[in-house]
Design goal:
Blueprint lengths: L4 E5 L2 E5 L8 H8 L18 E8 L2 E8 L12 E3 L13 H8 L9 H14 L5 H7 L11 H13 L6 H4 L1 H9 L6 E5 L2 E5 L3 H10 L4 E3 L5 H6 L8 E3 L7 E4 L2 E5 L4 H11 L4 H4 L5 H6 L2 H6 L7 H8 L2 E6 L2 E6 H4 E3 L2 E2 L6 E8 L5 E7 L10 E10 L2 E10 L6 E2 L1 H7 L6 H10 L14 H20 L14
Parallel strand pairs: 1-5, 7-9, 8-9
Antiparallel strand pairs: 1-2, 3-4, 3-5, 6-7, 10-11, 11-16, 12-13, 12-16, 14-15, 17-18, 18-19, 19-20
């Protein structure tokens, strides 16, 4: 065990002996290090003004991703390389190609959001030199700019891609050296303290299991896309906090199922969704913005138990299961049985989600829908997952799950009954649209009224029918995303 947090900041080693559970990366950068290019806009991971890159070791080497520093806890940066806008440089120490293109194409007006936009485009420029307009728009989902209208920013991103230079970029040149330094920082449990707050970073999953048996009331933090707001908005005490974002990263496909470690992020899972459940890929890209998808994990989205979590409606419709672990004991639970009531799940003290198992269902008709006030980087008002098996024109099996319409993600059992055994026809889906009214009693809140949610739930059955019966019918706006 070690009592020090170790990471790299703009290539330089940082060692901190005193770190609190609630200390954010943004505050460390701005207050402690005076790296003020990273801005605080919303303090909830929504606007992107605080975007920095975090390089972390993955199975395929060192990966740099844009993240929200405002809700990223400092302790979660152990063994990582944090890169801020101050580290960017071009040939000879001048402007980086992204910065130069932003100047040339007038991509900045008031300038407040500009550093965050530059960092998001920097990550895209490194990973995808030939990015299309659609790729750029997706990369900018988590960056809000109220001045430019985005057109000059997109032009700047295209121009930077044409300018090239990725192979000579500092993060590419230094990649192997940085990776070696990061490997040397890992291996032991880290326990930190400041002002009575405790932050713990387990060495591995077995260490996590032992730790939670001893500290069953600890706050488990994976991506912090929700817990971060507990601190920045509600000033909640999260100590002792156990940081697990570096654990449970396994990904594999076997026996027609995707098996994901609970620590797999939305971005890490995206290629598997694209390749094995393509009908849900567009939905997957609407989970937060790029920064949120790089931080948030599927296991935590489930364990958090929110009725508006984005992954459970789709995963329940597909018949997903989860593996729960306490100590060395494991048990498998159908995901729809995990959610009991609002704020309550089938999870014992000291137990945690270790793995998520998702049937790919290539034989079924699958769809996933998200309805929100804003298309990108917004919280769901209503989400739905559909998975229907049709045999000889008859619906043999129907699994439909909604989020945002009850205290937990919940199957529409009445509507499922109205579909099962019936012909795959318009009248059948009209009957299901009527039946779903008895499945839920939605609440009215700031995102939508109960009446709106009920109407949306019914209309999604009609939408599913239109999409499945006439695949060429333009009833849905999709993004033609490249690989």
């Amino acid at each position: 065990m070690t009592p020090a947090l170790r990471f790299l900041l703009n290539g330089q080693p940082i060692t901190l002996a005193e770190v609190g559970a609630s200390d954010t990366l943004l505050d460390f950068l701005r207050i402690d290090r005076r790296l003020t290019g990273t801005k605080e806009g919303c303090a909830e991971g929504d606007c992107g003004a605080c975007t920095v890159l975090v390089g972390r070791l993955a199975d395929d080497g060192l990966v740099y991703e844009p993240v929200n520093a405002c809700i990223r806890f400092l302790a979660s940066c152990h063994g990582c390389h944090v890169v801020t806008v101050e580290h960017l440089r071009g040939p000879g120490g001048g402007l980086h190609p992204i910065q130069a293109a932003m100047v040339e194409h007038h991509g900045s007006q008031c300038g407040f959001c500009t550093p965050g936009i530059v960092m998001a485009l920097y990550a895209l420029w490194m990973a995808n030199p030939d990015a299309s307009v659609t790729d750029i728009e997706i990369a900018l989902q988590g960056n809000i700019c109220r001045c430019t209208g985005y057109e000059p920013i997109v032009k700047a991103a295209l121009a930077a891609g044409r300018a090239g230079g990725q192979a000579a970029d500092a993060l590419a040149v230094e990649r192997e050296l940085v990776a070696a330094k990061l490997r040397a920082m890992r291996g032991e449990r880290v326990e930190l303290c400041r002002g009575g707050e405790r932050a713990i970073i387990p060495a591995d999953v077995d260490d996590l299991a032992a730790l939670l048996e001893a500290e069953p009331k600890a706050t488990i933090i994976a991506g912090a896309t929700d817990v971060g707001l507990w601190v920045t908005k509600f000033m909640r005490d999260i100590s002792p906090a156990v940081f697990i974002g570096h654990l449970m990263k396994s990904r594999r496909v076997e026996g027609g199922e995707i098996r994901l470690g609970a620590g797999v992020t939305y971005s890490e899972a995206a290629p598997l969704i694209r390749d094995h459940i393509p009908a849900a890929y567009d939905y997957w890209l609407r989970i937060g913005g790029w920064q949120v998808r790089n931080m948030g994990t599927i296991g935590a989205n489930i364990a958090n138990g929110s009725p508006i979590g984005d992954t459970p409606p789709l995963l329940i419709a597909l018949g997903a299961r989860i593996v729960l672990r306490r100590g060395t004991a494991r048990r498998e639970v159908p995901l729809d049985a995990f959610f009991i009531e609002y704020g309550r799940q089938d999870r014992a003290s000291g137990e945690f989600v270790e793995e998520v198992i998702i049937p790919t269902r290539p034989d079924a008709r699958v769809a996933a829908y998200k309805v929100s006030k804003r298309r990108d980087s917004d919280i769901t008002a209503v989400a739905a997952g559909f998975c229907l098996t049709v045999e000889s024109g008859t619906i043999a099996e129907a699994r439909v799950c909604f989020g945002g319409t009850a205290g937990v993600p919940k199957r529409a059992t009445g509507a499922e009954a109205a579909l099962t055994g019936q012909p795959f026809a318009r009248d059948t889906f009209e009957a299901a649209a009527r039946a779903v009214a008895d499945d839920f009693r939605p609440l009215t809140d700031m995102r939508a009224s109960a009446e709106y949610r009920s109407a949306v739930a019914a209309n999604l059955f009609r939408r599913f029918w239109l999409e499945q019966s006439e695949p060429g019918l333009p009833v849905r706006l999709t993004q033609a995303v490249g690989a």
